[in-house]
TrEMBL record:
It comes from Streptomyces nondiastaticus. Residues 168-233 form the HTH luxR-type domain. This is Response regulator. Keywords: DNA-binding, Phosphoprotein, Transcription, Transcription regulation. SMART domains: HTH_LUXR, REC. It holds the Pfam family Response_reg. The modification 4-aspartylphosphate is found at residue 71. PROSITE patterns: HTH_LUXR_1, HTH_LUXR_2, RESPONSE_REGULATORY. The keyword DNA-binding applies. CDD domains: LuxR_C_like, REC_NarL-like.
Length: 241
């Protein structure tokens, strides 16, 4: 049996190649329904369920899942804070956090991105969309609901229009020119392989530059790097740069 809320022991993945998932939601019916959907899907393994943020932090450290389905509003510790703690404390490879919520609000989107979430999906997305999202983020992609993506771009565009002549933020001054290039292409949505081809360097070198840039900026995830690039003017929505 897979782990239940309360920290029951779950079996090891056993090298099957299944995507190991931790489900976090304070509403028992929703948590149970999502977990049941995942258990019934081929290639998925629910390693544990958590009913709150504090429990999620503990179970993430214990089970080291590949993907965490994270609710936002929980009574003891928010999903945003839990995500920050999990990702900043995780040993590599860190889990990929997919925020799953009923609240399509800007404040949660931005907070989830800054915390390092790899995706943001609404609970009304449907079973197949959820399964596809888990697979996508487990494979290293960033994923956002279409409405979320549209509103993020609109918000960043409004910021750019409000201060069109603002130079890139001083937060990026510590980066080398190559680290800035890698950050720029990362924020444009390119994969490591695509960045390597664009800059004519190896994927390993791309990874090294991105990791160094993230370390200098105190970031825990690629998603945070994207947010910082936009917020500091390295990338301007709608310009292709």
């Amino acid at each position: 049996m897979t782990g239940k809320a309360g920290g029951a022991q779950a079996p090891e993945a056993g090298g099957t190649g299944d995507i190991r998932v931790l489900v976090v939601d304070d509403q028992v019916l929703i948590r149970a329904g999502v977990a049941a959907l995942l258990r019934a899907a081929p290639g998925m393994e629910v390693v544990a369920e958590a009913s709150g943020g504090e429990e999620a932090v503990a179970l993430a450290a214990e089970h080291r899942p590949d993907v965490i389905l994270m609710d936002i509003r929980m009574p003891d510790l928010s999903g945003i804070t839990a995500t920050e703690r999990i990702l900043c404390d995780a040993q590599p490879p860190a889990p990929r956090v997919l925020v799953l919520t009923t609240f399509d609000l800007d404040e949660y989107v931005y907070a989830a991105l800054r915390a390092g979430a790899a995706g943001f999906l609404l609970k009304d997305a449907g079973p197949q969309r959820l399964l596809a999202a888990v697979t996508a983020v487990a494979g290293g992609d960033m994923l956002f609901a279409p409405s979320v993506t549209r509103r993020l771009v609109e918000a960043f565009t409004r910021r750019a229009e409000a201060s069109p002549s603002a130079p890139p933020g001083t937060a990026l001054d510590a980066l080398t020119s190559r680290e800035l290039e890698v950050m720029l292409h990362t924020a444009r949505g390119l994969s490591n392989a695509e960045i390597a081809a664009e800059l004519m360097i190896s994927e390993a070198t791309v990874k090294t530059h991105l990791n160094r840039a993230m370390a200098k900026l105190g970031l825990c995830s690629r998603a945070q790097a994207v947010v910082v690039a936009y917020e500091n003017g390295l990338v301007v929505p709608g310009t292709g740069n």
